[in-house]
Amino acid sequence: MFKAINFFRLNRINAIFLLLFLQMFCFQCSEIDRNADSKTQLIITLQKQSEKSTSTDSIRSFLEEAETIIASTAAISDSLKAENNFLLGIFFRKIGRIDSAAIYFHKSADYVTESISNNRELFYHYATWKAYFDQNKYGDCFSITEKFRALINDDDYYNLKYFNYMLESTYNQIGDYQKALKYNKAWIAASKKTNDVSRIHTTLISQIKYRYYLNDKTGAYQILDSLLAKSNTISDIDKRQLYLDYGVYLHQDKDYKSALSYYLTSVNFTKNLPENTFKINELATAYMNICDVYINLKEYNKAISYLDSAALSGLDKISSSRQKDFLSYQLQLASLTNNNLSKVNGFLDAIYDYQLKEYENKYTNELAALTKANEKQQQIQQEKSQLEIANFKRTVTLLSLVAVTIVIGVLLYKRRQYRFEKEQLQIQQRLLRAQMNPHFTFNSLSTIQNYINEDQGKATNYLLKFSRMLRLILENSMQNYVQLNEELELLEKYMDLQLLRFPSNFTYEIVIENFDKDDLLFIPPMLIQPFIENSIEHGFSGIDYPGIIKLILTQKGHYLECVIEDNGIGINRKTNQGKTSASTYLIGKFLKKATKSEIEVINKSDIDPAQSGMITKLIIPIKLTQND
Amino acid sequence: MIRAIVIDDETYIRRNIIDMLSQNFKSEVNVVNEAESVSDALTKIEEYRPDLLFLDINLKDGTGFDILQRSELSKLNVIFVTGFDQHAIKAIKVGALDYILKPIDPAEFHEAVLKAIENNNKENHLEKLIEISSEYFNGVKNRRVILRTSDNVYAIYEDDIVYCKSEGNYTTFYTKQKDKIVVSKPLKKVEEILSENIFVRCHQSYIVNKKHVIKYNKQGVLIVSLDEKVPVSSRRKDYALNLIFK
């Protein structure tokens, strides 16, 4: 029921915290002067920036950068490392992660191994202790305090003051008032040695408590009275605490009237406190204490009115334990005054509503936080999937590009290959003609030579025919394809010319099977002539019967089948392979390429021994135009 | 008596021609002089004013066409004498001029000289023929061809010919001006004098100017200028349409 005492203690600790912060800045200025090294300078700059920063993210990034530099640089002083850990500790404290803060503070304190040489090192220890203290880790509090004590001399009263304060607070917190009192006294002693007695009243107020609960009530009241006697030297804050404590002790000792007067005085001081929840709670507590006093004095109306005052600022503003107290006083008063319980009910409902609302609020907030987290996760998921889609698209684009490039490459290659093959074919064809013309020419020239000796008139005649034919051959040879009737005309001219040489030696016949002579069909020139030449020159050489050459042409789709048949001596007796066979070899090679079929040569005697002669079958490509 | 000049850079060929003339046409043709180059020929033509030229195409300092273009004679007959020069032969054919080939076939020679004697002193539009032949030889853009009918000589722009139709040994030219010109030449010979890149043999009996083709209908017929119809043989369809419409 008497919760008032705990509040002032927090206040006192916060004040010390602030004080040490100020000292810390002074210390850092001197620290900078000592470091010339650029890395060190950089770390210091980063640390300074972190202290100037308002956003937690930038503080963290500055310090983590400094931490990285520290980790990668050997010659960094311990003091700088300690400082960085300390600043990280402060950062974590700021964002409410007090457990992490404790770890960093402890790390900073661990760099101090010899003795406490400045305020900064003191503060590393104090901050560590405070972080443990706030987490109720009193064992850790004792261990850091012990470490701190080992670093200070017996006559270092300044640091001893802090040491005592830490121990006093810790023992107070665990309820060991005996020890708390001991260190409280040691604090006062150290304080006196340092000539700093500014906070002595606050400390004495603490001592009263220890004494009171250690049943040294006389001592407690003595100090209370002595403090009240010189109340003009005490601050209002201390005075408020003093009157409040006095009231509480008297209240407990059942001196209600005196307790009431002290409570009322303390209420006046409380009213001067700055507006915050501390003040509201303190006031509510004070009013409820007064209410309790009036209940004990059996002045229920006053008790009720003070209790009502406790709820003036709104029941929902005061702490839940105070709400509980409030309700139990209401109930107590209702039963004491035999009043109806509807008023209590009303308050109960109000508190219930408020708590429900609180719960709902909390629930809603949690739900909102959860939704927000969910949304964020979904957003991340969405971004991730979008990124994946983008990646997929990029991959697909890349792959299709590669595929297209390959296809184009293959097509280009095929086209090139096709062109190359076509060129090869044409070169071969040209080679063929080049091979044949001189052969034919020289045969003819030797015939003319013979005529000149025998008969000049015949020589002229033969020469003219030969020149016309040569012209035709040349004209045809300039084309890759010639019209079929031109080629046939040439063959006729050729055979006529040969007949001049070998009169009545042979006859010839050209049979066109399934098309017209004048049809616009084009074939490569000079393919048939060598085979006819072969029949005349070799097949009919030395025969004693009239030779017959039959040329049969049949169109078969894109090809022309050409059969050259003679009744000569056949292939087995052939003596001269020479140039003719070179020609036929080249033609065979060309036709194989162009039509994929070979020249067929049949010896008639192989089929029927009664017959002689040869059948040669060629498959020649046809085109419908002269241009390829 | 026809006054002739023989122009050739080969002495033996000149001698051969002169011999053949004196053997067969002693009373009809008198060779007044001979020349071996363009400049030599121009001087002698100026000096002797001949009626007939035996003209070689390839001379040392130019061509036979140079001589024809630079001399100012009208009513001059020309018999080209050429070796193997296909471009020149085509030019002569386009201009419907006469020519004989080397080595000279006495029969061909005889025929050509007889024709020249027959045409002597006749209005034969030789300047026109030479002009068009020279145009082809020198490679002008918008070409003309000479079409000789029984009555007239036409110099017609190839672009004005819409199509040609074969009728046996005669060929009819259908022009943009709606003229029908019947020439006594088989279609194959006509094809020889027309530009390959403009005219397409789309049918056994037809040559069409692809510049005049408007469309091809499903019945296998080309619709050309003047709303005339030109058939396409089924066998040559792909080839012809590809050439015409590509």
Give me some keywords for this one.
heterodimer; A: 628 residues; alpha+beta; two-stranded antiparallel ribbon; 7 strands; 71% helix; B: 246 residues; alpha/beta; five-stranded antiparallel sheet; 17 strands
State the gist of this model.
The complex is a heterodimer of chains A (628) and B (246). With 628 residues, chain A is α+β, with helices and mostly antiparallel strands.
Number of strands of chain A: 7
Assembly of the depicted chains: heterodimer
Which ranges of chain A are low-confidence, i.e. pLDDT below 50, for 5 or more consecutive residues?
Answer: 1-10, 29-36
Shape verdict of chain A: rod-shaped
Q: What is the mean predicted local confidence, pLDDT of chain B?
A: 89
Largest pleated sheet of chain A: 5 strands, mixed
Point out poorly predicted stretches of chain B: none
N-to-C SSE string of chain A, H for helix and E for strand = HHHHHHHHHHHHHHHHHHEHEEHEEHEHE
Helix content estimate of chain B: 25-40%
Strand content of chain A: 5-15%
β content of chain B, as a range?
A: 25-35%
Helix-strand makeup class of chain B: alpha/beta
Judged by helices, strands and strand pairing, the structural class of chain A is alpha+beta
Element string of chain B (H = helix, E = strand): EHEHEEEHEHEHHEEEEEHEEEEEH
Q: State the separation between the terminal residues of chain B, measured CA to CA.
A: 57 Å
- The best one-word shape of chain B is elongated
Q: What is the tally of helical segments of chain A?
A: 22
Largest sheet data of chain B: 5 strands, parallel
Terminal Cα span of chain A: 117 Å
What would you say this structure looks like, in words?
The complex is a heterodimer of chains A (628) and B (246). Chain A is 71% helix and 7% strand. Chain A has 22 helices and 7 strands. In chain A, strands 2-4-5-7-6 form a 5-stranded mixed sheet. The radius of gyration of chain A is 62 Å and the shape is rod-shaped. The model of chain A is unreliable at 1-10 and 29-36 (pLDDT under 50). By secondary structure, chain B is α/β, with parallel strands linked by helices. Chain B has helices at 11-24, 38-48, 64-70, 86-94, 106-119, 126-138, 187-193, 237-245, and strands spanning 2-7, 29-35, 52-56, 58-59, 62-63, 77-82, 98-101, 144-148, 153-157, 161-167, 170-175, 180-183, 199-203, 206-209, 213-217, 221-224, 228-231. Chain B is elongated, with a radius of gyration of 20 Å. The model of chain B has no long low-confidence stretch (mean pLDDT 89). The interface between A and B is medium-sized, with 14 and 14 residues.
